[in-house]
Amino acid sequence: MRSSLKLTKILSKASTQQRYYSAELKSILAAQIPQKQAELKEIKEKFGNVSLGDTTVRMAYEGMRGIKGLVTETSLLDPEEGIRFRGYSIPECQEKLTKAQGGQEPLPEAMLWLLLTGEVPTPQQTEGLRADLQQRAQQVDPKTVEFVKSIPNNLHPMTQFSMAILALQKDSKFAQAYQDGVHKREYWIHTYEDVLNCIARLPLVASIIYRKTYHNGQYIKSDSSLDWAADYASMMGFGGNKQIAELFRLYLSIHTDHEGGNVSAHATHLVGSALSDPYLSLSAGMNGLAGPLHGLANQEVLKWLKEVQKDLNGREPTKEVLRQLIWDTLNGGRVVPGYGHAVLRKTDPRYTCQREFAQKYMKDDPLFKLVSTLYEVVPDVLTEHGKTKNPWPNVDAHSGCLLQHYGLVEEDYYTVMFGVSRGIGVLSSLLWDRALGLPIERPKSVTTEWIKKHVKMN
Ligand code: CMX
């Protein structure tokens, strides 16, 4: 009797603390928002007519490369150095962000706090957010869960994922508040609820998709004592393995954000700019992530690696043999998946940190050895080929071989994991879009006729 009273006391103290820390995130944002709004107003008033650079005919035809026409606060990509999350490089995030007990990789909850506020959270703040996300995940409508379970398995997992996010949309606080006539200064408060509810529930729906598609619908319950990434791994069937939990923490932290112009971030921002709620916006972003030149490249890399292994047909993967196989891909009018980037001009640091993880835990894995040898060969071949502006590997060149090693062998699923992580970055950005009152996006398009006349006149 006495010990159960003691436990109730401890639990109630813990839950008060959790409430306190998750309320703290909201109050930090509430304090930051008016300052940022004032700053934005001043910048627009003082410097609104300062040019950010020219737009050329080439830029208009070639995917708007290099046009500075978007503001995204959460991260910035340098072509040489790679991504910085709120100013922090990947090694700095690995050092500074809260880790699980005994772990070395950052917790995605800490990354979420960083992306939302620009501040590195304390371990207590990270724990408060973890507990808050757990509670929000538990409050999901069972009917939504049943719907996700009923999505046909013959749809690609990314199609299922996008549908699942749309199914979660029925609980959108923002959509409801808008219908109730909410004042625009309060948009962010309802967006905040949607952003946290949606992020909390992504591992749940994503793991259901995994279990129904590949494991006969034998579902595994969430374990509320685990962190967001470890619980996702556990619900997928990889519970109790410390290395996989660490891999999930790293994977789900580094895939969150890559500034604002990539397809998934831009699509989420664009759709959100029409005041479509966060679920509708994220689902649109996921449809973009599902393209083979973007997030689906992680699936394509694995398929290609398997093709290479098949073509090797027992031969030693020497550099000479691999060179020929890469040329076969290029001569077949295909891209080498996992290589090249629209902005980066060096090896992606997201590739490097995954390589370091492999060197630490699985250096003798045959697939990792193949990926490593390809790293020595592909850049030379692509340079010789002479087309790509960046012959170096991106994030997708490495992720699949790590997952294969730990038994997550269904490569068609890989982009869903990317999407679960990407939700953290693009929804953090969307919160700020609504907080800063950014308007509906509507760039000007022109016709080729217009360009011909314009060029003649100039
Ligand atoms: N293999 C073969 N050719 C490539 C190539 C690659 N890995 N990367 C670029 N090229 C080609 C392009 O197809 C283009 O050819 P065309 O002129 O015939 O159209 C030419 O090189 C110039 O392209 P670029 O300016 O260097 O690259 P883009 O900015 O247009 O495209 C990207 C960037 C990522 C789509 C491209 O490098 C690519 O297709 N890579 C392979 C797919 C991939 O790994 N995507 C994942 C990117 C990361 C992510 O978003 O997740």
From TrEMBL:
The keyword Transmembrane helix does not apply. GO terms for cellular component: mitochondrial matrix. GO terms for biological process: carbohydrate metabolic process; citrate metabolic process; tricarboxylic acid cycle. Keywords: Transferase. The active site is at residues 294, 341, 396. Signal peptide: none annotated. InterPro entries: Citrate_synth-like_lrg_a-sub (IPR016142), Citrate_synth-like_sm_a-sub (IPR016143), Citrate_synthase (IPR002020), Citrate_synthase_AS (IPR019810), Citrate_synthase_euk (IPR010109), Citrate_synthase_sf (IPR036969). It holds the Pfam family Citrate_synt. One of its GO terms (molecular function) is acyltransferase activity, acyl groups converted into alkyl on transfer. Belongs to the citrate synthase family. This is Citrate synthase.
